[in-house]
Specification:
Layout (H helix, E strand, L loop, with lengths): L6 H17 L4 H5 L6 H9 L18 H12 L3 H9 L4 H8 L2 H12 L5 E4 L15 E5 L2 E11 L7 E7 L7 E7 L5 E3 L3 E2 L5 E13 L3 E3 L4 H36 L1 E2 L2 E2 L4 H27 L7 H26 L1 H4 L5 H11 L6 H13 L12
Parallel strand pairs: 1-4
Antiparallel strand pairs: 2-3, 3-8, 4-5, 5-9, 6-8, 7-8, 10-11
Helix pairs in contact: 1-4, 4-5, 4-8, 5-8, 6-8, 8-9, 8-10, 8-12, 9-10, 10-12, 10-13
Keywords: FAD, Flavoprotein
Pfam families: Acyl-CoA_dh_1, Acyl-CoA_dh_M, Acyl-CoA_dh_N
Cofactor: FAD
């Protein structure tokens, strides 16, 4: 069994790496610590064909595969971690669900700007009382003539301060079969994007409020019964999360490695101390192990969607390996690693957030255990007799 990338995949990765080093290396640290969305970089990435990589060409995509998208995120992140967020936003998450299920009219209205790096789409899924228990959401859509009235609220929506379009999980009726989704445009009467709140990872997210927000029926993405389709797309989204987690762990590893061969203490390079050698050995092993699980899940997507089991294992492994490597890299670099003069502390903060977002590591372990035993385990308490 060959664990190397194919010639075509390697050539693609190399071309993305060259582009990143030529165009994105300068200013990488400044971008990481800026709260502004780098629209100029987004348009540059779009021109390079790095948004919509795995989407059909008829939809304005590049006609590539999930593996190409994973490789692009990794190569960009190894040079400019912040820019990898743009590649993620243009290939995974709500935009992928949109491309999978949107009508031709919806795609015509929104996709050109989204894939051109001119606008963003945000996901409204999590609610104040419905986090991991996403099926308990309360935000509702009630038909009113040819329109729907939306009521409820959402939190923790990535890119919400900048987004112009929101893919919102919605309850049309009772039970799981009553869950679907709608598209809400910024500026819709009754829809308010709240004041941005700052988070540990450096991002700002806004709470979304819906008070009889009126949307036309043509903005329904998936009506009642659409929940399972949405979740299948959400499973694929985990590959973007996993790719960034692993790549930022590698980025921190590379910075710490360079530090270890140039920094001297007690008259010796840091890499000559056995205690630090062991740290690098542990980091490298965990990163390589997680890389194999990520590639396996991505390759499953070459001919369809990867399994929920594979994406759960890939995300868990990459979250934990990336966090371990970045945290150890910070320790190796001491005070410099802890300083915002180096990018390592940024990698630590970013990866820590991804261990919660997109399915917490605890929920992932539950999902993996279900695959082990071939059955579902309800997290709800048993019903009273």
């Amino acid at each position: 069994m060959n664990f190397d990338l194919s010639e075509e995949h390697q050539a693609f990765a190399d071309s993305v790496s060259r582009f990143a080093k030529d165009r994105l290396a300068a200013g990488a640290l400044e971008r990481a610590h800026s709260s502004e969305y780098p629209w100029e970089v987004a348009r540059m990435l779009a021109e390079q064909g790095l948004l919509g990589i795995a989407f059909p060409e008829v939809d304005g995509g590049q006609g590539g595969t999930l593996m190409h998208a994973v490789l692009a995120i990794q190569e960009i992140a190894l040079v400019c971690p912040k820019s990898a967020d743009i590649v993620q936003a243009g290939n995974f998450g709500p935009i992928r669900t949109f491309v999978e299920y949107a009508s031709a009219e919806q795609k015509k209205r929104f996709l050109p700007d989204l894939l051109g790096g001119r606008k963003l789409i945000s996901l409204g899924m999590t609610e104040p009382d419905a986090g991991s228990a996403v099926t308990e959401l309360k935000t509702s859509a009630r038909q009113d003539g040819d329109d729907y009235l939306i009521n409820g609220s959402k939190i923790f929506s990535t890119h919400s301060p900048e987004a112009e379009l929101f893919l919102v999980y919605m309850r049309f009726g009772p039970g799981i079969d009553g869950i679907g989704s709608v598209l809400v445009e910024r500026g819709t009467p009754g829809f308010t994007v709240g004041k941005p709140a700052s988070f540990m990872n450096g991002e700002q997210w806004s709470q979304l409020y819906f008070e009889d927000a009126r949307i036309p029926a043509k903005n329904v993405l998936l009506g009642p019964g659409g929940f399972k389709k949405q979740i299948s797309g959400f499973n694929v989204e985990r590959l973007g999360n996993a790719s960034r987690s692993l790549a930022l762990g590698r980025h921190a590893f590379n910075v710490a490695k360079e530090h270890a061969v140039t920094r001297k203490q007690f008259g010796r390079e840091l890499c000559e101390f056995q205690g630090l050698q062991w740290k690098f050995a542990d980091m490298w092993m965990k990163l390589e192990q997680a890389q194999l699980l990520l590639y396996r899940a991505a390759l499953e997507g070459e001919h369809g969607l990867p399994s929920a089991q594979s994406t759960a294992m890939a995300k868990l492994a990459c979250n934990e390996a990336g966090w371990f490597a970045a945290n150890e890299a910070l320790q190796v670099m001491g005070g410099m690693g802890f300083s915002q003069e180096a990018i390592v502390e940024y990698c630590v903060r970013r990866i820590r957030g991804w261990m919660i977002a997109g399915g917490s590591i605890e929920m992932l372990k539950n999902r993996i255990a279900e695959g082990v035993f071939g059955r579902s385990f309800s997290q709800r308490p048993p019903k009273a007799a």
